[in-house]
């Protein structure tokens, strides 16, 4: 899968713009690659449809090639198909939490039972393992050995041949001994059959689990979908654990199982050791399926830079909106120093005579304006909205001017503010700074 996709993206790389034809070509190859990886065809179909829709309307980030943009979309879509965010194992608020592990023979149920016990014990909970596989030779012994390794007690009854009866006894024992969590290790078959499903339905009825968790070997491929679908139909799964992800797997199983059941993948088995259990991260799995770690890192960085740029732009805008009389005063004194500000403004690109219409930049007024602003309190300078009639009278008196002069200054300030906004708009469009002549 990975190398196939990589080839596809190499073809897209370096093109100026993503055309409809490009997307079609890319998604056709993605489709083939996923099918080759044994992802269920229904999953592939809806996946490709999503990619088509998203890629067509998408903006291409400045720093990415169109091909990289498609990779980002594919990666996001893979992540969301597998649940988006990691999902935590929850405990019953009523008291004891009952977990039931199901799956085909060799899927890793007994090993995972031990791994889960170790994981749950770390959360200071008392765990009981219940041995309900009476068919596989030495299955009970295997769980007892594992239980010893993780220091968890194992409930077993070697005399009893009916797994449903063992399950009932184990539940009773767990209640009497105040266990926080009990994990039922059940039997599997090489293939799904009626007898196995009936037995699991019986056990489910008698112990009413909080969680029924399907263990699935990530090497399973196409068959994974049928297994997950059947288990989900018959006993209604609450989640999935993907085992043997440490192997040389293509990862297609994760995608189809999550998509077909709509149930979260809780953990990934990462080896035979009982500590080899990891929380399942959909985004990491997506990267793994794509097999393009460094490209994805690059794309993430570009995205982060892009976000930062946006934040700075916003900051600048906010700054312009909160342009205060204090700023205005500074501007006025700068103007005084520069001489005829109007002449300078007229030379600036985008700021023709039209923009300056109605703004009186009489040199003599600068001094008067400064005096008026000096008579204002800091609060008034920062928030001119509060300057009512009374305040205007006081400011006029303090600066030796008339109320009309104060009004005129405030009007000039408002116009100046508007003008600044216009300029910042021009600035953004050109992606460049103004240059004074
Ligand atoms: P069960 O039949 O479903 O109970 O499966 P087991 O727990 O007996 O596991 C079958 C085999 O798979 C054993 O040899 C385990 O050591 C191995 N196994 C289980 N989980 C993992 C895993 O995450 N990684 C690897 N490499 N091997 C695993
Ligand atoms: Mg087993």
UniProtKB/TrEMBL annotation:
<comment type="function">
    <text>Involved in targeting and insertion of nascent membrane proteins into the cytoplasmic membrane. Binds to the hydrophobic signal sequence of the ribosome-nascent chain (RNC) as it emerges from the ribosomes. The SRP-RNC complex is then targeted to the cytoplasmic membrane where it interacts with the SRP receptor FtsY.</text>
</comment>
<feature type="domain" description="SRP54-type proteins GTP-binding">
    <location>
        <begin position="264"/>
        <end position="277"/>
    </location>
</feature>
<dbReference type="InterPro" id="IPR036891">
    <property type="entry name" value="Signal_recog_part_SRP54_M_sf"/>
</dbReference>
<dbReference type="InterPro" id="IPR004125">
    <property type="entry name" value="Signal_recog_particle_SRP54_M"/>
</dbReference>
<comment type="subunit">
    <text>Part of the signal recognition particle protein translocation system, which is composed of SRP and FtsY.</text>
</comment>
<dbReference type="InterPro" id="IPR004780">
    <property type="entry name" value="SRP"/>
</dbReference>
<protein>
    <recommendedName>
        <fullName>Signal recognition particle protein</fullName>
        <ecNumber>3.6.5.4</ecNumber>
    </recommendedName>
</protein>
<dbReference type="GO" id="GO:0048500">
    <property type="term" value="C:signal recognition particle"/>
</dbReference>
<dbReference type="InterPro" id="IPR000897">
    <property type="entry name" value="SRP54_GTPase_dom"/>
</dbReference>
<keyword id="KW-0963">Cytoplasm</keyword>
<dbReference type="Pfam" id="PF02978">
    <property type="entry name" value="SRP_SPB"/>
</dbReference>
<keyword id="KW-0694">RNA-binding</keyword>
<dbReference type="InterPro" id="IPR003593">
    <property type="entry name" value="AAA+_ATPase"/>
</dbReference>
<dbReference type="InterPro" id="IPR042101">
    <property type="entry name" value="SRP54_N_sf"/>
</dbReference>
<keyword id="KW-0687">Ribonucleoprotein</keyword>
<dbReference type="GO" id="GO:0003924">
    <property type="term" value="F:GTPase activity"/>
</dbReference>
<comment type="similarity">
    <text>Belongs to the GTP-binding SRP family. SRP54 subfamily.</text>
</comment>
<dbReference type="GO" id="GO:0005525">
    <property type="term" value="F:GTP binding"/>
</dbReference>
<dbReference type="Pfam" id="PF00448">
    <property type="entry name" value="SRP54"/>
</dbReference>
<dbReference type="GO" id="GO:0006614">
    <property type="term" value="P:SRP-dependent cotranslational protein targeting to membrane"/>
</dbReference>
<keyword id="KW-0378">Hydrolase</keyword>
<keyword id="KW-0547">Nucleotide-binding</keyword>
<keyword id="KW-0733">Signal recognition particle</keyword>
<feature type="binding site">
    <location>
        <begin position="185"/>
        <end position="189"/>
    </location>
    <ligand>
        <name>GTP</name>
    </ligand>
</feature>
<dbReference type="GO" id="GO:0008312">
    <property type="term" value="F:7S RNA binding"/>
</dbReference>
<feature type="binding site">
    <location>
        <begin position="243"/>
        <end position="246"/>
    </location>
    <ligand>
        <name>GTP</name>
    </ligand>
</feature>
<dbReference type="InterPro" id="IPR022941">
    <property type="entry name" value="SRP54"/>
</dbReference>
<dbReference type="InterPro" id="IPR013822">
    <property type="entry name" value="Signal_recog_particl_SRP54_hlx"/>
</dbReference>
<keyword id="KW-0342">GTP-binding</keyword>
<feature type="binding site">
    <location>
        <begin position="103"/>
        <end position="110"/>
    </location>
    <ligand>
        <name>GTP</name>
    </ligand>
</feature>
<dbReference type="Pfam" id="PF02881">
    <property type="entry name" value="SRP54_N"/>
</dbReference>
<dbReference type="InterPro" id="IPR027417">
    <property type="entry name" value="P-loop_NTPase"/>
</dbReference>
């Amino acid at each position: 899968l990975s190398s196939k996709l990589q080839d596809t993206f190499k073809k897209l790389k370096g093109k100026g713009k993503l055309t409809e034809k490009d997307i079609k070509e890319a998604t056709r190859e993605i489709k083939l690659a996923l099918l080759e990886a044994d992802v269920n065809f229904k999953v592939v179909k809806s996946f490709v449809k999503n990619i088509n829709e998203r890629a067509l309307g998408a903006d291409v980030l400045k720093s990415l090639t169109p091909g990289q943009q498609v990779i980002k979309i594919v990666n996001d879509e893979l992540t969301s198909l597998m649940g988006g965010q990691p999902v935590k194992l929850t405990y019953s608020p009523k008291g004891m939490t009952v977990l039931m592990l199901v799956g085909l023979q060799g899927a890793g149920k007994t090993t995972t039972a031990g791994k889960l016990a170790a994981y749950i014990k770390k959360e200071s909970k008392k765990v009981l393992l219940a041995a309900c596989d009476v068919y596989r030779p030495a299955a009970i012994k295997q769980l007892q050995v594992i239980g010893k390794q993780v220091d968890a007690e194992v409930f077993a009854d070697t005399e009893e041949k009916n797994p449903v009866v063992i399950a009932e006894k184990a539940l009773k024992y767990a209640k009497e001994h105040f266990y926080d969590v009990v994990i039922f290790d059940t039997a599997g078959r090489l293939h799904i059959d009626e007898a196995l499903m009936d037995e699991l339905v019986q056990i489910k009825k008698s112990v009413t689990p909080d969680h029924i968790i399907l263990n699935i070997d990530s090497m399973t491929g196409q068959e994974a979908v049928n297994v997950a679908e059947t288990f989900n139909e018959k006993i209604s799964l609450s989640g999935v654990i993907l085992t043997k992800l440490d192997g040389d797997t293509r990862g297609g199983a994760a995608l189809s199982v999550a998509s077909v059941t709509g149930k979260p993948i809780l953990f990934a088995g990462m080896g035979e050791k009982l500590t080899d259990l990891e929380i399942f991260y959909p985004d990491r799995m997506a990267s793994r399926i794509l097999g393009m770690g460094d490209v994805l890192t690059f794309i993430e960085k570009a995205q982060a830079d892009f976000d930062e740029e946006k934040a700075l732009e916003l900051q600048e805008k906010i700054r312009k909106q909160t342009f205060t009389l204090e700023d205005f005063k500074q501007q006025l004194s700068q103007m005084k120093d520069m001489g005829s500000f109007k002449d300078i403004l007229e030379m600036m690109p985008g700021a023709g005579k039209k923009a300056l219409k109605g703004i009186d930049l009489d040199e003599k007024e600068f001094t008067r304006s400064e005096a008026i602003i000096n008579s204002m309190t800091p609060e008034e300078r920062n928030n001119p909205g509060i300057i009512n009639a009374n305040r205007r009278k006081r400011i006029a008196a303090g600066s030796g001017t008339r109320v009309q002069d104060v009004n005129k200054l405030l009007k000039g300030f408002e116009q100046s503010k508007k003008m600044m906004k216009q300029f910042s708009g021009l600035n953004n469009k050109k992606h460049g700074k103004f240059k004074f002549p």
